[in-house]
Write a structure and sequence with these properties.
The chain has 122 residues and is an alpha/beta fold. The chain has four helices and five strands. Strands 1-2-3-4-5 form a five-stranded mixed beta sheet, with helices on both faces.
């Protein structure tokens, strides 16, 4: 599954966009690259765009991914954009994140996610 990363200077965050089938292993690979880019810019904001992901990520993997994020990005502010049909998965991710102490919030609207991540009001 391909992923793309980009440093967004306006708002100082890293955007990672996943497409195709998302697996736990591919997520770990993308996370390592993302961590290097965040460190290079000395930023702590990350936007993960899952709207292009074809499969539904298993619940156990959602829990694992959030635990993994807690280790890799302990002080990061993370916005995750889910496709509208997977909004319930986003709510689950929000609950797990809150319970695990991860600063993560899910969205189905890309513009709202950017506004929250960059502390701008829309």
């Amino acid at each position: 599954m391909p992923f793309t990363m980009k440093a967004i200077n306006v708002g100082e965050y890293v955007l990672i966009r996943h497409e195709g089938r998302l697996t736990r292993e591919e997520y770990e690979e993308s996370t390592a690259s993302t961590k290097r880019l965040l460190d290079e810019h000395r930023w702590n904001r990350l936007l993960v765009d899952l709207r292009g992901v074809a499969n539904r990520v298993p619940i156990a993997d959602v829990y694992y991914i959030i635990e993994f994020d807690k280790e890799v990005f302990p002080i990061a502010k993370i916005g995750v954009v889910f496709p509208p049909e997977r909004q319930e998965d986003g709510r689950f991710a929000d609950t797990v994140s809150e319970n695990r102490g991860v600063h993560l919030k899910s969205f189905v609207d890309y513009v709202q996610a950017v506004a929250w991540l960059t502390d701008e009001t829309t």
